[in-house]
Amino acid sequence: METAQQLDKPALGTNDAARDKAINEQAAMTQDTPYPDQTVGTPFVDDPKMRLRDVEVFYDDNQAIHGVSLDIGKNEVVSLIGPSGCGKSTFLRCLNRMNDTIDICKVKGSLHLESQDLYDPKLDVVELRARVGMVFQKPNPFPKSIYDNVAYGPRIHGLANKKYDLDEIVETSLRKAGLWEEVKDRLHAPGTGLSGGQQQRLCIARTIAVSPEVVLMDEPCSALDPIATAKIEELISELSESYTIAIVTHSMQQAARVSHRTAYFHLGRLVEMNDTETVFTKPEHDLTEAYITGRFG
Amino acid sequence: MQTGNLLLLLVVMVAGAYYLGLRRSFALARPLGGIRHLHSLPFYFAMRSAMWCALPALVVLGLWLAFDDSIIRQQVLASLPAELQPTDASSYNLTLSKIQNVASGALPVNFVEPPIAAAAEHLQSLRQTSAMALTVVVIVLCMFGGAWAWLKVSPQLRARQQVERVLQTLFMLCATVAILTTVGIVMSVLFESIRFFGKVPVTDFLFGLQWSPQTALRADQVASGGAFGAVPLFMGTMLISAIALLVAVPVGLMSAIYLAEYASKRVRTVAKPALEVLAGVPTVVYGFFAALTVAPFIRGMGESVGLDVASESALAAGLVMGIMIIPFVSSLADDVITAVPQAMRDGSLGLGATKSETIKKVIFPAALPGIMGGILLAASRAIGETMIVVMAAGLAANLTANPLEAVTTITVQIVTLLTGDQEFDSAKTLAAFALGLMLFITTLVMNIFALHIVKKYREQYD
User: Fold this and answer.
1) pLDDT over 70 for what percent of chain B?
2) Residue B98 domain-assigned?
3) Cβ of A140 under 8 Å from any chain B Cβ?
4) Between chains, do A142 and B348 touch, taking CB under 8 Å as contact?
């Protein structure tokens, strides 16, 4: 099956020979172990923040997500892991309808943010995105000043009546993102002039400036060095006190460090979802075990 | 041999050299075990042979053609007897053209003095000799070059690098041609303008409010002095260009935004080329569209609300010109808007901005330099446009800011100054060069100004 798709992502810490072996094993495994119709583990929680049932995503005739159902609890950090092309980013982008920007993308299923149906035709997407913010893989600050970057959202949504209020929002957001001390003297310097890690924290500050309820992060550290990564991870832990966070990551260590629950995706299906600790110590499904032990991925 | 035939022969020989070079490199490669043992691919050996064959011959050919005529002329004139030797520039030209006419058969031999006839014959024979010599020299050079290159082919020869160097030089020469042409044009306009300012004071030209360039050819004619105040022309140009830009910039920009951000792929593939067709309509067609359709329409509209509209008006010309330059704005703006990274859009949309907010606050500032470039291009086109104005705005140099009146522009006046029978050193004709210079400076200043604005307001994404 689609082994070629996974070839380009070597498992962590394996050399070529080991990788070849892993690929062979994976090929064997995908033949032996059919996908579970039912996700194993405990994908559902009581009183979830986001309730997602039977989510299917199509790019034209290509089905990218097959019947994924899971909950994201309040103030919970959920990490989505899995090999490249398994659909975790696509799934994440459904949660604030960023997939709308792709013409050929169709989403089916029932997706709710509390009682709000995300794909209700009457829903104002713009408001939804203010409630469910997103941080992208590559830091993408606007080519504006640091201040204007953070003030962008509040200005659009009219969150501040006076300059003073706006200043305060900018400062709080930058503080929460752990960037205030580094940039307070140059708020009017361009945001693109910051280092990669600072840019990503700026993007996080920009996202939380509109006080979202949920923050989606699509591999937020994949373009960053280890020190910047550590800072962002620390930040995620702090943010989880006030926000619900869903994070897509390729680093299993990262998933283990920051998240409460972990979902393992494989070829567009949700294979397993459990407490992070369970997933990494006693995975229930063979595919999960194979992935987290680095036999393929 | 005639130069055309010679060039044809040259092409054949170069092709031959290419083929031989190719053959030889393959022949060399075979015993070594294939072309991978050569330093360069056979193509490069072949190209190198072709270049050696062509370039020296072409250089000699070019130099020869550039100088042989003047050398022959010198020799022919020197052969004339002393009493027929030209004394000044005009008699020099006269004698020369006489000789040339006899030589070409346009002037019968018995119409001229015998020494001239002899000189004509001399000219003829010199020309033949020159052509012959040229043929021989070029062919020999061609063969030598080709043979030399053929002999030098060896597995170690760095043909690839040599071809690269020749191409590099070629590219540089092409760039130089464009730059030198610009410099040449500026210089010629500048020198003629200086002559003009010798006759008419600069201040009169720059600040004079009246333009009537009729000067007397003879002293007893009435319209003697002429007035060369460029302000009415300048104002007319600015008025019409401003109207044109007022039409083109909003329409062009918004259509670009629609095409880049909102239109579906299907609409885009049809609409974009269709818009660009506007730029392909000949200006003379726009001209009569303006003069015969738009101008009467505006006149009728004006009359119905009690306004007095001239049948040739700045408004008609400006409106039609605006339509014409829409594609310059829209096409360039569309390209730069499309080039803004998707990450910028995602970032803004992800914060809950609408599409139009994203465009206004993120995409537009990021695309500003390109948009400005499109507007500038359109503005230069508007300022330089002639045909529409001639047909729809008239020739009357009125100093007015009223778009309903007839005005004229710098370019139109240049055309009228230089067409028809003219003395080429009168103030009237020289004024055209001064106007040209002014136009050039205006555009230049505009460009610098726009660059400055772009630098100040652009938001640069990496």
Assistant:
1) 96
2) yes
3) yes
4) yes
CATH code (residue B360) = 1.10.3720.10
Q: Which letter does DSSP use for residue A36 in this model?
A: P
pLDDT (tens digit, 9 = 90+) per residue, B225-271? 678 888 888 898 999 999 999 999 999 999 999 999 898 889 989 98
Per-residue pLDDT tens for B103-148? 888 888 777 778 888 888 888 888 889 989 999 999 999 999 999 9
**A222 touching B (Cβ < 8 Å):** no
Contacts of B344 in chain A (CB under 8 A): 140, 142-143
B1-57 residue pLDDT tens: 678 888 999 999 999 999 999 999 889 888 888 888 888 888 999 999 999 999 999
Residue B169 lies in a domain: no
Contact between chains at A130 and B351 (C-beta distance less than 8 A): yes
B residues 332-351 lying closer than 8 A (beta carbon) to A: 341-351
Residue B234 lies in a domain: yes
- The whole-number average pLDDT for the span B267-287 is 88
Enumerate the residues of chain A whose CB falls inside 8 A of the CB of residue B265. 103
A9-22: per-residue pLDDT in tens? Answer: 444 444 555 555 55
Contact A192 B357 (CB under 8 A): no
Task: Note whether A279 contacts B: Cβ–Cβ < 8 A.
Answer: no
pTM equals: 0.73
Domain tally, chain B? 2
Contact residues, chain B, for A126 at CB < 8 Å: 352-354
The domain of B134 spans 3-157
> What tens digit of pLDDT does each residue of B334-347 get?
989 999 998 999 99
One domain, residues B304 and B382: yes
Choose the final residue of a domain: B157, B177, B199. Answer: B157
Same domain, B451 and B316: yes
B454 touches chain A (CB under 8 A): no
ipTM summary value: 0.81
What's the pLDDT tens digit per position in B390-408? Answer: 888 878 888 888 888 888 8
Residue B167 lies in a domain: no
Q: Which of B264, B343, B351 sits opposite A152 (nearest CB)?
A: B351
- Shared domain for B345 and B450, answered yes or no, is yes
State whether B406 and B317 are in the same domain. yes
Residues B16 and B57: their CA atoms lie apart, in Å, by 15
Tell me which chain A residue has its CA closest to the CA of residue B458.
Answer: A143
**Smallest Cβ distance to A133: which of B351, B366, B462?**
B351
B360 touches chain A (CB under 8 A): no
Q: Where is the domain boundary, B125, B157, B189?
A: B157
Do B153 and B290 reside in the same domain of the chain?
no
Put simply, the answer to whether A136 touches B344 (Cβ < 8 Å) is: no
Contact A140 B460 (CB under 8 A): no
Considering the domain architecture, whether residues B153 and B232 belong to the same structural domain is answered as no
